[in-house]
Amino acid sequence: MKPIPKLKHSILIFLISFFLTLYASAQDRISTEEYIETYREVAIKKMGEYGIPASITLAQGILESGSGNSGLARKANNHFGIKCHNDWNGKTFHMDDDAKNECFRKYKDPSDSYRDHSIFLTKRDRYAFLFDYDVTDYKSWAKGLKKAGYATNPKYPQLLISLIEKYDLAQYDTGKTKKRRSEEIIASEVDSTAVIMSGSALVASMQPVTQSGTGRPVYEINKAKFIVIKQGDTFYSLANEFDIYSWQLFKYNDLEKNHVLQVDEIIYLEKKRKKANKQNQQHSVKEGESLRIISNVYGVRMSSLRKMNGLSNDEDIVAGMVLKLR
Length: 326
Prior knowledge:
alpha+beta, single chain, two-stranded antiparallel sheet, 2 domains, four-stranded antiparallel β-sheet
């Protein structure tokens, strides 16, 4: 075998390093739901201190930081894109934005970014009129931020409002987190085998967390929203009803494109979590249960269940097995 020339060897090493970096970066990303879970209490606390709706703060954080995944958020803990300005004496981070090599504020911790965001709005006269709005009036706050010049994007208010309504962020404007029946569900209360025949068995003791424009109830398990299929539903009609793509429904529910929806089937509208909530540590498999059924009952991705339990993609579960859920 001929030795690899030095130049080609260097290129090979570079490419391997490059793709490993990309892979690590992708694995390290957090979802919007995880971002909300991490920072909702901080937003609520700052609302109490400064009077800015927690829903607005969270929506801005999601939008400005890409749910905490932007370079500015990761390298400078700056979740709101706040630039240095003349009154900033702290650490700085430079990157290209509207102009080349612009100066942004750098924080020790993301919570410092949340605090500075609140101070930023309360100390500048152009935002003063916002505090005349009720703390629960997120629509006026969103429109007011654009009017005051917070962002140049003409659709900034609509983007904030869309995020608030999609992720039900307005619930945090009450100053507390709602305790939901679906979030407190424990394994002993669910006869998951019944779900094989009817998703109604799963939602019998739950309260809907929201509803679609047609009035269809939307439920939630493990912070992932789902519905129960009714007569006449198709993937196309569901995509239109919930303003998402049909391919997302296939992906979120681990389904093939030739899958035919059944009445009372459970369909998730967003990604399930990587692990179950703390009340659910494991599950003893019953006769007739499949991995997808268990995935639906606990709101955990099938890929995560396989990984946690050392199951290959073509390996089935059997009655009596004890599966780890987190």
